[in-house]
C-alpha cells in the first residue's frame, strides 16, 4: 500500500467502534484490505455523523500506521508573516473575521494595514457582556456583535460554510488551528470551536498581526470616508483625526447601522438585500438527542445532537439557523430598546438546552407590505429595527424577551406559563403574532410540518424567544469584479456587512479575497 493510500482509508462504523481502539483497528484493516496484524495504529482524519433513516453511523477517513511506516500528523504553525516597516496603505473597518483575515492576507502579501475597531479587546469586552446579561445595561460599542473578533467571538464558533473552494476553506481552518483552535476542527465534518476557546484564538491572531507591524485601533469608530475626485483616499475617525490611505476596506458586520447610514449619505452604491427574521427556538437537549439518535441518544461518541430544518410555507422559505447544541440564548442587541437574541455554545456543548434561530425569509415583497420601498437600500434595516423595537416593548424593557410555548404558538393560544430557558434576561409570555406580524403565518405552518416529522418539537417543553433578527445584513454594498465599490474606487466592501458573506468562515474567506484584490490593485499581487 502506498504512503498516500494509507492516509485515506474510508469506513463507516457503529459509534461503539470509535470508543474501542482494537475494534477500530480491526475495522480499518478490513476496510483497507489488510491483515489485522499489519495495521499497528489508526488516526482519524475526518469524522461525520450520519443519523439519517433512523440508523446512526460514523463515517470516518483514517490514516494507518503500517509496519515500519508510522503516520504522523503534520504540525500546524501560524502563517509566516514578513515584518512590515513601510507606510500604512490600507485602513480596515472592523476586527471581525473578515477584517482580521483581510489584514492577515495583506500582511502575507507585504501590504501594511491598520484595523479600526469600535469595540474593545476580548477580555474587557467580557465585562460588557456580563453587564448586559446580568443588569440589562448595553454598551453600543461593546456587545455580542461589536468588539475584537467581531460577532462570532462569543458564539458556538461553528466553522462550516457552503463555500466550495476546498483549498481555501482548509486554509482558514488551518489558520485557526495555528492560533490555538483544537485540531478537531480539521477532523469534524461540522467543526466548531466554542465560546470558551474562541477568544484565546482571536487574541493569538491579533498578537501575531501586531508583531508583523499591523496596528489595531480599539475603541475607535470609523465615522466617514475621505473622498477626493470621486475616489476614497481616507477614513474619518471618532477620535477626531483621519487616516490617509490608498484603500479602505469596510467590514463592519451586519449590525453597523451607523456605517450603513454614512455610506448612504456619501452616495456609495447600496442595494436592499433579502434577509430573514424570526425567533430562537429552544428545547431540552435530551429531546433533540432522542429525535436524532433514538436509542443511541447520549452515546459518548456522538455528543449533543444538532438539526437543520428547511421548509417552504405560505410560499416563503423558513429555516433553522445557527443551531447551538448544548447552548445558551443571549441578548445580542447593539443599542438600547432593541430586542435581539442569538445563541452560543461552549466547546463541550454539554448545556441542558438546544437552541436555534427559526426564521422566515424577508424579501422585497414584505418590505413593500410594510409600507417601505425596496428601492430604498435601507428599507430592510428600517423594517428590522421596527420589529426589534416592537419586541423590546412587548418584553416590557430591560431586554426581557417576549416568548411563547411552541405548541401554544402553533395552536394560536396564549401561553399561561413558559418552560425553563437559558436566556439570562428572563422571558414574559406574549402572543408572538403581535411581534412577528406577517412572519407569524409562514412560521406557524413550517412548525406544524416540523412537528409532524419530529414528535415533541412542537410540544410543551419547547419555547420560542423573540427576536432573531440579525441573521444577515439587509444591505449590500455593491462591488465590481475587482472588489471595489461600484460607485467609489478605493473602497472595498467586505464580509457580512458588505453583504458578501454570512458566517465566520465565509467572512474570513471574503477577507482573504478582498486582500488579494487590493494587493493586485496596488501592483503587489
Ligand atoms: C452570538 C452570535 C453567535 C454566532 N454564531 C456563529 C457561529 O457559530 N458560526 C458562524 O459561522 N457564525 C456565527 N455568527 C455570525 C458570525 O459571527 C458573523 O457572520 C461573522 O462574524 C461576520 O464576520 P464579519 O467580519 O463580516 O463581521 P463581524 O464579525 O460582525 O465584525 C464586524 C466588526 O466591525 C466592527 N465595527 C462595526 N462598525 C464599526 C465602525 N463604525 N467603526 C469601527 N468598527 C466597527 C464591529 O465592532 C465588529 O467587531 C454568530 C453571531 C452572533 C452575534
Report on this model:
With 525 residues, this protein is an alpha+beta fold. Helix content is 29%, strand content 23%. A 7-stranded mixed sheet has the order 13-14-17-12-20-18-19. The radius of gyration is 24 Å and the shape is globular. 48% of the residues are buried. The mean pLDDT is 96. The structure holds flavin-adenine dinucleotide. Flavin-adenine dinucleotide binds next to helix 3, helix 7, strand 16 and helix 14.
Short description:
The protein is α+β, with helices and mostly antiparallel strands. The chain contains 14 helices and 22 strands. α11 links the parallel β18 and β19.
Largest sheet: 7 strands, mixed
In order across it, which strands form the biggest sheet? 13-14-17-12-20-18-19
Tell me how many strands there are: 22
Low-confidence blocks of residues = none
**What is the strand content?**
15-25%
**What is the average of the pLDDT values?**
96
